[in-house]
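chain below, 450 aa
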Amino acid sequence: MLPQLRRLERKYDRELVVVGVHSAKFAAEKSTEAIRHAVARHDVGHPVANDRDFRLWQEYAVRAWPTLIFIDPRGRVIARHEGEVPFEALDRAIGQLVAEFEARGLLDRRPLSFALAGLGAEGGPLRFPGKVLADPASGRLFIADTGHHRLVVAGLDGQVERAIGSGQPGLQDGPAEAARFNHPQGLALQGHGLFVADTDNHALRRVDLATGATSTIAGTGEQAQQFHAGGPARQVALNSPWDLVFHLGQLWVAMAGFHQVWALDLDHGLLRPAIGSGREGLQDGLLEAAELAQPSGLANDGQWLFVACSEASAIRCVDVAAERVGTLVGLGLFEFGDQDGVGQQVRLQHPLGLAAAQGVLYLADTYNHKLKRLDRATAEVRTLFGSGVPGYRDGPALQAQFSEPGGLTLAGHRLYVADTNNHLVRVADLASETVQTLELRGLGPPSAGA
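prediction:
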């Protein structure tokens, strides 16, 4: 709902006040510091209350995420809506309420302003990086510099080659320095093409690495308001594409907003829902009947497609040829924690990142601030890196600290990690069992007003 609320706040900047109430599902989301990071990461401009004990949830008889509650100028609750709602409908409702209370002389148009609490890393070279992709063949590392609305191309040693994108949010194709993205996330590579899940533009983009030019290959730029059957890629409205991977000749898209995985046939320019009914849940079975829960990470090992269902704290496995979806670990939408073990013993907390190699999956267990190893054959999970306490510390594997790592990629015996809330890329070495910070040489923040 954040994009719709931003539009309303701009349009009714003297009439409407938005107050967010964060009633956390996951334990890690109850931390005020974590909420500060989320407010900055999502560019939220209104105040947010931390309802960690569900007091406001209960006082207002809330039953679902999201719930919108409308309060009139006298402080009375006059309406509520459960679930997402299109901007147009909200705009009509707010417009009618503004006209009504203006006619009754109850509107107070004195301006209000709210300062976003600083987090101390706003001027660094990266801002909330989301996903990373290593290409060992070329020795390059691609970084979704999500909070700066751009992509970074560097060597695996950290030497920066170029930045792609002006650093200003928007949906604009063209040369590297002029192109605009909006909170890009997942990356996939094919030949000279770098494919990008441009999440808040609800679009898929392609960067020609030979020239740096960006083009839009899927999406209309508007968020889809309802499920649909897909079609010609440039004519299809998408809903928060979050990650990408090539598998069996197609580009697979973790469509987090639809709780589905989609497939793009690049040869014919057709995009369609391929995995998941659209109902949020954790149900195995045939591709179209299975239930996913906010798929946010994708990987493949040449045979299997793997999906991180972050809202169910689950890792799914997909046999595309057999048209079947299974679950490696995860028990349901409200079963989460931090527990190593085998199969149903395992508890994760909102994993976002996956990397696959030779029967092994590496996981960014995001809200547990850890990196873990999953054996596909046995479903055994064990922690490899991270103390579990959010923070920043290099060093021995289990003493190192991360803060909501959001993506990871494998190059040889090194895992490159987007350490999102630390605004860094970290390197977890599987051989030496140590963590180091990757120094990105030759990169600064985008120029103001670029």
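Residues 132-437 form a domain with the Neuraminidase fold (CATH 2.120.10.30). The mean pLDDT is 95.
thats it, cya
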